[in-house]
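*** Protein under study ***
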Amino acid sequence: MRPPQAMEGPAAAATLQPPGPEEPALPGRGPETSSGGGSGGGGSEDNRDQSVTKSTRPTVGWVHKGPMESATAARADTGAALRLGSIRPTAGTPLGQMVAYPTDLTLTLLAMRRRSRRPDPELQQALRARLRLLENDTREVAHVLGELSARLLSIHSDQDQIVVTFKTFEEIWKFSTYHALGFIPHCLENLLVDQAFWLRAPEDEEETAVEVCLEEETLRLMHESLLMQEGSYFVLCPDHGVRAATGPRGAGRGPQGGAASEVDSRTPSPSASAEEVVAAAPELLTPFHQWALRVPWDPVEDSVEEPVAPGLAMTAGGLAAAVADCEGSVPEEMTFQVGDLIQILGARVPGLPWCLGQHESSGQVGFVRMRHLSLEGQPELENVIFLNEEERAFFSNEGHFSEEDAKQLLRRTSEPDVCTTYSLDRLEEAKFEQPEEHEMPPLCLNPEPSETLEKVKNVLEQCKSRQACPEEPVSWGLHPVASRVSSLDTKEEPSFRLDVEADWTDDAEALGSMLLSLNAPGYEARFRGLYTLSLPGLGSLADEEQLAGRLAQARGTAKRAGLPMALARLCLLLGQLCVRKLKLSQARVYFEEALGALGGHFGDLPLVVAVYTRLAAIYLKQKNREKCAMTVDKALALLLGTPSHVGSTEAELLRLALQRAVRVQSAGAEARACFLLAQHHTRFKQLEEALPFLERLLLLQGRLGPLATAWPTDGYLLLADIYGRKCLPHLALSCVRVASLRARGSLASALRSMDLVLCHAPRLHGLRQAAPSLPAQLTPYLWQALTSPAARTEQTLRAALYASLAQVHSHHGQYSRAISLMIRAVDAGAMASARSVVDRLVALAWLHILHGQSTVALHILESIGDAAVASEDQEGVVANIMAVALRRTGRTRRAAEGYYRALRVARRRGRQHDQAVVLANFGVLCLHAGAERLAEHYLVEATKLFARLPSAECGCDFTQVLLRLGHLYAGRALAEQTRSCYEWAFLVAVETGHFKSQLCAVQRLCHFYSSVLPNEAQCVIYHEFQLSLARRMADKALEGQLLDTISQLYLSLGTERAYKSALDYTKRSLGIFIDLRKKEKEAHAWLQAGKIYYILQQHELVDLYIQVAQNAALYTGDPHVGLELFEAAGDIFFNGNQEREKAVSFYQDRALPLAVATGNQEAELRLCNKLVALLAELESPQEGLEFAHVALALSITLGDRLNERVAYHRLAALHHRLGHGELAEHFYLKALSLCSSPLEFDEETLYYVKVYLVLGDIIFYDLKDPFDAAGYYQLALAAAVDLGNKKAQLKIYTRLATIYHNFLVDREKSLFFYQKARAFATELNVRRINLSPDPYYGRIAWLASGPPS
């Protein structure tokens, strides 16, 4: 049963009524409904996550749709569409007023065209069919939804819906994030659509996509319900303050965790307007904000002297004017007058009281209170998130794709094995092609063969003319070498090292030189290593105590010498050492000394940031409220407002900065904090911790407007890499797809996307383990790379991309499209090296062979040979493929010569695999020519060579050779050799892990053990393995067929246990046929189940299953299917031993009229024969006469002499039973007249014996003519003597002796027949022969005792 639907909105929640009949039944097409969510009046849109908005729209983030009415007519039938869960306050209703929460969420799948926004019926039907298959086996759907943090409840394929639920706050938070980022549709695309969906070119018809619609209000209410269950949550109050609340009536506590201020949950007065009610209701924060605020509350008393208006934009840089006088209380704070101009350094962060500025006239740098400044102008969002080029390049540096990486990737995707190794010719791949026939290329895709050959010759001429010129390397504009090292850690940057191992006591000059170097007034790149916790520049001392002592000595010297910057840097190092040893108080002293030594000097800004952040982190850990109030805000202003700095930043400070941004609802500050947190965790390889911040950053970027920049693409690709490392392949590929659709990409991003697809696409098939080596999902990114500026100008790159596209299409069987793309690759790569040109031409020729155009392939290969530009190994490949094409066009002699040339090249180069392939091709050629013995020799030699190779080098070629050899042995009835070859092929296929080869080998073994050497047990075993392969390859049609076959195998075993197993397999096949909408097979499966129930004598279910089978057959509308099924239903009872009379109804009333209506005379004859036999057994010979005459007429019409003889015989038998002796005699004689002469088989002679015996009985007993009866008996005797049947002779001699003794009164003949009978009786050990009339005679008047009347 389907679970009740989730609540659709506040109105439904309040009334608890099912949707009315007037509501629209089509999802996603209803009118707009009002959203009754209770939002705080005046609240900024920035604090709302896209996943918790109040309108329903597709998950695809760049498409905006109207709300969806999900109350369909089908759901109206279920009654109340509300699942009662916990109790909630409705939107716009005080928290004390309660209604029920929804507990499930419905996802509706829509197939849409991207540009026109119109539905795509074809794709919609494909989605529905796929959902139907998954409805009974939900493992794959549950797995994908598990990646999306949702729990599957049910699938409703008829409505294109999936129902999910959530159990924890974390689940709904993650799902909401994926929904807002647009990942959900692409995850389901990878699950529901086939590979052809991705293979469309940009010039094809309009691109289609899968969209997922869900009820946003339901998602919001489920989020609210889970928060209520957890007990504590955060709300945005009407005064724009964020408060913590517990339960519907719980008291809140202020942002700083001080005295709790109660969240107003009082019931509004009845006179309050709806607007007042909505404005008075606190609004729940989004899931991410709920999670972000769960960190320990800010221990600092609210340092913002005045309320901060929500939603203020974060500003970066710019000139500000002072609006008040200010006297700095500490050296770090700036002193200025009203009207002074101050240049903001970095950014001004809402929610923080301080920012860093520089006085325009005096040049002083220091902290400035933001309330004293007036800013002009608003910068772009990108300039708020990233404050310098180093930050802007962070994502690209983290995952950049080098030129060497790109070349390796394209070599993997564009160079097929056919260019480097010999290819095996398969006899069954293509039909014999006549050489004189002209092959027609596909219309509108490929040029004419003459144009193709002209292009090939031109390319080869250019290649030949450039053969002496060396090829100049061309750059693609990517990084020259592969590197995963961030720009912060490049080796070119100088590094400062302290010589702490020197004896500074004796060598004061060395110490002084070092201190002078450390006393540099500004920041230098060589100081970078000093500001990190890893301390890379402190020499090689293993004893940190000794190291601390040397640094303390240097500190003292710097202090005495009055070197403040050296003192500050040394104190920073000493403090970091203390932090590592968890000596926080001592570290605090060092950091405070470093801050004092700086004295308000900001020349080395990274040093100031490092000191402030470390000192603030210690104050937070020690919960020093007074010191925190003086330090934390300034540290946060430095972190968020100045460019990223070297060194390790305490994550809790950044989390506190994020918390401040959430409180003031500043999207810019939140994005900046999320970037810094993602950067921090990524640099320290804490990818799990970086994930939520990177997701939120990309979400904010999408919400606040698209940017003409590449960083979002790099961010999405980094996110995809993190998902992949977490074994979330669907999310990884969805992230890559969203990156290509939403953000501006580059060649590097397209190639990196391909790399991620190749890495993670095979994991999509985790449940079935059969994944394509070149997934179709590569296609969009290859086309994207082709549109890049580098691909437009660099022909070598363009050629590689086109060749890669051709290989992807070829891998998925689209040879026509692959040929077109490979021609483009050849054309674009005309100026490449000779080897590359020849390789692509060889690949093009092979594609033509696979497409059945061997003549075109021959011309291409001959052109390569005439140009003489191929290397020796390429000549062998060309000779082998040319021989394959020659064999397919019937030129056997030239093919043999080509194979011989290829074999010589392979032997010269020592390529054992290629030698084996050529020998196998020789065997195929010999089979084609009819020389089986010679073919066996070559195939055996190839097998010997393959057997010496490692299995990894054999590939699937060894399996194919063994299967071909086994087929050859099977044709010669060599069962043992056949079995050995097939089983060896199966073992090789299993070892290499090639699923298609395993399937071929198992299919041959199944046929062998069912037909060649029948073995029921082995047959069942291999069919079971074939079934497991079909499941792993997701071939539902093959799976259903195999289940049906296995059911038949178990049924043939004839035991009760086997019958039950057969029933189980039949029901499983039935489920698949129902899902596939194969009504004919479904009908036969229902009937098969009914037959098994009949055998198991569960008669109460037999009629039910047969009736459903009839309904399924009638649903097809095909009378031939109905005829076949009705006859099969009758056969169940006809071939059984119970309730046989039911067969008459199926034959006579249902199947026979269909046979007459369709003009199927063979079926009509067959049914009439069955009815005649059945009615005779049911003691209804009179009814059978009509069908016997029809059968006779049909037999004569069809010219079927055997059925005609059968019809005459059955007519005779029926008339005999009805007492029509003369008619019976007539029809028996007609049957005998149709027998072949002379008699060929003993069975025919035996038939004569029986029929003449019956004729004798009819004449003697029914027609009262002993004389004629004696004649028929003698004819029967002649046949029995000819047959040598002694029992029949004994019987006939006895009857003749009786007739001649009692009726014809011929003593001599009577005695003769009696003696013959006695002799056979003695021989057969029959003790007594009775010559008196049979007791039956007494019932015949003319044979009764006494005188005649």
The first strand starts at residue 87 and ends at 88. The chain is about 55% helix and 5% strand. The two ends are 84 Å apart (CA to CA). Residues 950-1034 form one domain.
